[in-house]
Amino acid sequence: MERRRTTAVTEFRALSPRVSDQFWLLSRMNFPKAAREAFAAEFARFLDQADGIRKPKQLFDLLSAFALNFDCPWVAYGSLAPDRKGLKLVRGDPAVMLNYPDEWRERYFEMGYDKIDPTIKRSRRRIEAFRWSEAYNDESTTEDGRRVLDEAATFGLRSGISVPLHGPEGSFAIMNFAQPWDGEFRNRTITYLQLAALHFHLRVTEFTNSTRVESTSNLSSREKECILWTARGKSSWEIGKILGISVNTVNFHIKNVMRKMDANSRITAVVEVLKRGIMEV
Predict the structure, then answer these.
(1) Can you give the residue ranges of the HTH luxR-type domain (predicted)?
(2) Same domain, yes or no, for 256 and 162?
(3) pTM as predicted
(4) Which of 55, 160, 222, 230 is the most exposed place for a label (fewest CB within 10 A)?
(5) Higher-pLDDT residue of 6, 193
């Protein structure tokens, strides 16, 4: 049984974003024909509907509905940067999406559990999906880490799996699927959910990249001038004098940059513009 799971995971690593390749993988798995055909129908429906969605939240809702086929009412997705231990949680940012119980979600982030969650730590070292019980019993997991999973169980998330989704430059995301009862996920179920998580992650990445390209291309020359002088430490009054425009006009352009960069301050906007390579100071 374990050998069959390893074979499926090996093929999963080489999976490309193309739908045809995903179905090729399904045809190669050593699963009973009836089960394979049943999943193929559900997965094909998921893919067809996902390709018509243009908003991350709607895509997450579709994935959550798909997970219910495998008795997983709770799903969580979070992305991490190479230099961060915890999840990125920014209002309006699709980096974190989850439908966990409100009480558990609030406690999880309030207590900073994303920084000691053993499923996140294990995901940094793994490519294939794993059961939460594997992370719990890992000898490298601390008592604080085990407490995170113990508390999750008290809020109804009694068993689950995590799917690491590694990206370029050391970045990665993690997808969790949870059930309200004790018991281990079947190997076949894990493989099914891996495929859905991968397709979801690819689509969300497309959304994010297209949004950044759109933001960059829509930054006007005047907006670039204003944010450039802001990066050089100039005030709105000084920028107005340099460019020959009013302070109100300067502030108008800077606020536009902040909106396009999804920043809550002009300094954050400067950082984001530099990070995206839109300009150099």
Answers:
(1) 212-277
(2) no
(3) 0.63
(4) 55
(5) 193
Which band of pLDDT confidence, cut at 50, 70 and 90, is reported for residue 51? Answer: confident
pLDDT given for residue 163 in this prediction:
96
Distance CA 72, CA 187 (A): 15
The range of the structural domain enclosing residue 262 comes to 218-275
Separation CA 146–CA 134 (nearest Å): 11
Radius of gyration of the chain (CA): 22
Q: Is the pLDDT reported for residue 65 higher than 50?
A: yes
Q: Domain tally for the chain?
A: 2
Residue 260 belongs to domain with CATH number = 1.10.10.10
Once rounded to an integer, what is the mean pLDDT over residues 96-123?
A: 91
Measure the CA–CA gap between 8 and 77, rounded to whole angstroms.
Answer: 23
Q: Write phi, then psi, for 77 (nearest 5 degrees).
A: -130, 130
Which residue reads 């880490």 in tokens?
145
Residues 187 and 239 occupy one common structural domain = no
Query: CA torsion, points 144, 146, 149, 151, in degrees to nearest 10?
Result: -60
Helix (H/G/I), strand (E/B), else coil: 131: strand
- Domain identity same for 92 and 161: yes
Q: Are 232 and 281 in contact (CB under 8 A)?
A: yes
Cα(184)–Cα(192) distance, integer angstroms: 15
Together in a domain, 110 and 188:
yes
Determine contact, residues 82/170, Cβ cutoff 8 Å: yes
Residues β-bridged to residue 79: 173
Residue 280 inside a domain? The answer is no
CATH of the domain at 156: 3.30.450.80
Order of strands, edge to edge, in the sheet holding 130-131? 96-98, 74-80, 172-179, 159-166, 130-131
pLDDT at 37: 72
* Whether 22 and 126 share a structural domain: yes
225 vs 17: which has the higher pLDDT: 225
Please state, in angstroms and rounded to a whole number, the distance separating the CA atoms of residues 201 and 166: 10
